[in-house]
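Homework help board

Subject: predicted structure for assignment chain

Our instructor gave us this sequence and asked us to write out the predicted structure in C-alpha cell form, then describe one feature. I got the C-alpha cells but I'm not sure how to describe them. Can anyone check?
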Amino acid sequence: MADDQQAGDSPDRAPQNDARDDRPGDDRPPRNDGKNDGKADGDAGSSDSDASEKDKEKDKEKEKEREREQERELAAGRFKEFTRDPLSEEQDDDGPTDLGAAERTRRATRTLFATGRDHNSFQHSTIRSAHIGDIHVRMDARQSGTRMRSGPVPEEELRRLRRIHVEPEGYLRLRKALTARRLLVLGAAPGTGRTSTALSLLDEVTKQVTTPTTAAGADPAPGPRVKRVDPEGGVRRLADSLAAESAEDQEGRDGGEGRGARPATGYLLELPLTEPGSLPPDAMDLDGLAAALDARGSFAVVVVTVGSAANPLLAGRYGMLCPPAPTQELLTTRLRERLEEHVAEAPDGAPRLDELLARAEELADRSEIRDAVGLNDLRPAEAELFASLLAGHLLEDISHEELLSGCRSLAAGQAQEWFAGVDRALTVALPAGTDTLTATGTRGSAARPGTAALFHPVAFRIALAVLGGASHSVVASAAHLLTWELSVQSDPDNTPARPLFCDDPDSDLALSRAELSKGRVEVAGAEVDAQLIWYRGTALPAAVLTEVWDRHFPVRAPVVRWLRLLADDPRPQVWMRAAVAAGELCVRDFEHGYAELIRPLAEAATPRRRIFAATTLDQAAGHASHRKAVHKLVGDWSVYGAKSLRWTAAMALGYGNAAATTDDTLDALARIGIRDKGEQLAVASLNVVRLLALPDPAAVVRRMAAWTHHKQEAYQDLGLVTTVRLAATRVSEVLDDEPDAPLGGRGDWPLLLALAATRPELVRPMADLLWTALNTARSRDVAMDALEALLRTAVRKDGAEWTRQGLAALLPALAAEEPDRRRLDWLLRRMMNDPENPLPDAQARSLWWLAVPSRDRRGREERHG
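My C-alpha cell output:
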C-alpha cells in the first residue's frame, strides 16, 4: 500500500508485498535514493547541456517529493484534528464536559421516571370518586382551603377514632406529658396523622378526669369532652376564654348556685404558622394557657407544622414531635374496618375475615401495585383510600385498571395538596395607603413580607423532583435559586428578600416526604462521600412535575428560566438530571417545551447546553407517544439543520433512540460526519462509538467496515476516525459500569478491549478495522499511539491483571502476518526505550507471547528481554 493510498483501496486483510519504506516495524534498510545511470566513470561524452537537464529533472523530482510529503503531513494533521474531543469547546473556565459522568447520572436519573412508562405513571388518575359498597371514596385528596372552625367533636367520631387509630411510636410518652402539664405542643408534617393522634390523646385523658363538685350529690353538667378551637386569636384567646369561664364559675359558687361536676374538656388548636405574617406564641402565652387549663381541670393540644417558625415552640417545655404511624399497621387496620361489615352481611360459606385480609395483603404486595402506589410509606388518609381500593377490588366493585388508576392517584393527591393555593395569601388586596416608592421613584405596591419563606417549601419540592438522588447541598442550592425566580415572577416590581439563616433541613425532609442516605458523588473525576437526598416514593417526582406543569401554568416561566440556569452548571449531577426532568416536562406539552427549552438550547454556543437539549429529546423519545415526533425532528436537523442543530442531532442519535432503527441512526450520523469537509466528523464519530456500547454493536462494526472501504474519502475518514476513537474510549465514558451488564466490572477498560473480551464474534472485524487504520498513511500515527495505549493497559501499576484477556483476543488477529508482527516488534521496542515511561522487559515479552504463537516467534522474543 503506497503512502498516499486511500483506505478504500486497501486490501481486506493482508498487506501487499511492496516494501513500504515508512512502515514503522520494517527492519530493512531504507531504499537508496541515489541514482546510478549505469555509465562508466570515464564515459564523458555527454554534453554540459545534458547534465544541466538532468540536474533540473532531479530538482523537479525532489520538489514533487517535498510537496507529496507536505500533503501527507497535512492529511495526517487533518486526521488528528478529526480525532479531537468534540466536547472541549467550552467557552468558560469550567473545562470540558465529562460525558462519562453525565451518562452515569442520566442512567441513575431515568429510573426515577421509568416506572410504568407510557402506562399512566406520569398521568393524573381518571378516577375522581367511586362507591365501594356503602362507602363513598374520594380520589381527590386535596385539603379544603377553609380553616378549622370552633365546635365540639361528636362522640361518634371519637368512638370510630378509638376503633381505628394506630398509635405512633412514643405515644405513651406523649400521653404522660399531656397528663402532667395539661398542655402539649405537637409538631409534625401535615397528613401524618397528627390531628387524629391529638384527638386520641384528648379523648383518653378527658375520660379519666373530672373537676371537683360544688354541691354534693349533684349530677354532672352535660357538655362536650373534646372541642376544636378556631385558630383565630391563637393561644392567648383560648387562655382568655378559659379564664372568663373560671370567673363565671367562681361567681356562681359565691352566689350559692349549685353546679354539677364538670367533665374535663380537651381543646384541639391548630396554629397556621406557615402563613405570611403569622407569629408563634411566646413562652409566657403558653404558660398562661397551661395555668388556665389547670384551673379548669382541662387539657389542650396545640398542633403545629414542623419548620423554622415552630422550632422555638417544639424546643420548649411543652413541645414534642409526633412520629408518623407505621404504614403496615395503618393499612391492616383500615382493611379490617372495610372488610368487617362485608363479612358480617355475607352468606354462609363466604370467605372469612382472616382469609380476606390475607388476600388483600397479598394483593397489596404485588409489584405492579407497589409501583402504582409509588410511596414508601402511607399516611392515614392514603392508607384509608388504599384499603378501600383493595377491598373494592376483592369484592369485585372495582376493576383491575380502576385499582391501578386509584393507586396512582395517591401521589398525585399529595402533589395537589403541596401546591394548591400556595400564594393565595399574596393575592389579598393590600390596605389603602400602603403604596411605596420604587427605586426609580415611581409609585409601586408595598413589599409583601414572607415571599421567600412562602415559596421555599414548594421550590424545594420541585428541586427535589428534578435533582432527586443528588447531594443535599445541590438540591438546597437549586431550591434557593428557584425560590428567587418564583418570587420575582410573583412580584416583579420588588426585589425579594433572600433570608440567609432560615433553612431547616429536618423540616424540609419532613414536609417534603424526603430522606437522606449516605452515598458517593463524582467531583473532578474522583468519587467522594456525600449525603444524597431522595423522595420517599418513586411516584412523587413525576407527580410533582405533572402538578406544576399541568395545573399551574404561570409557574412554567420561572421553572424554564431555572432549568436553563441548571443547564449551565458544570456538575453532571445537576445539568444531566435537569435535562432528564426537562424531557419529562416536554412530554406533558411538547409544543411549549420545544419552543422554550429544546430549540433555544440546541442552538446554544456551548456544548453542554446542546447536550442538554439532546438528552431532553432522548427522554421524550422514551415515550411511545412522542417517539415519531422526535425521530422526524432529529432526522430533519441532520439533513437541513444549521451547524449547531446538526451537532445536537448527533448527540441525540448517540443515545440510540432518536431514529427508528440502528441503520437509520448510522445513516444520519454519516450525513452529519461527511458534510462540509468533515467539519463535524469528531462529534459524529463520538456518537458512533457510543452506539457500540448498546446491545447491537455488530451492526455498528459492519457499518464502520463499509465506511473504511468506501470510494469517497469522507466516508473513509469517518470509519478510520471512529476506529481510532473506539480504541481510545473507556467503557465508563459511554456506559454505566453496572455489575450485571455485559461489560460490567470493566469501566476503566478501553471499549475495544472490553468488547474483544466479551464478544468473540467481533474480534476479527474490529482487528481488521484497526489494521486498516495502522496501514493507512494519514491515520497511521494516531492509530499507532492508540495501539500503544492499549498495550500499556495489560497490567496495572501494582502488577494486577487489567485488560490482558482483551489483548489476548485482539493481538493474534491483529498480528496474523509477518509485516504486522514486525510492526508490533518495532512498537514494543519503542515502548521499552521510552525515556519517560519505559515498558518493563517482562511485560513486553508477555505481550509478544500473547500476539505471536510459539511456533511463529522465530526467536524474536529475545529482542524483548
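Reply (TA_rk): Your C-alpha cells look well-formed. For the description, you could write something like this. The longest strand covers residues 514-523. That's the kind of observation they're looking for.
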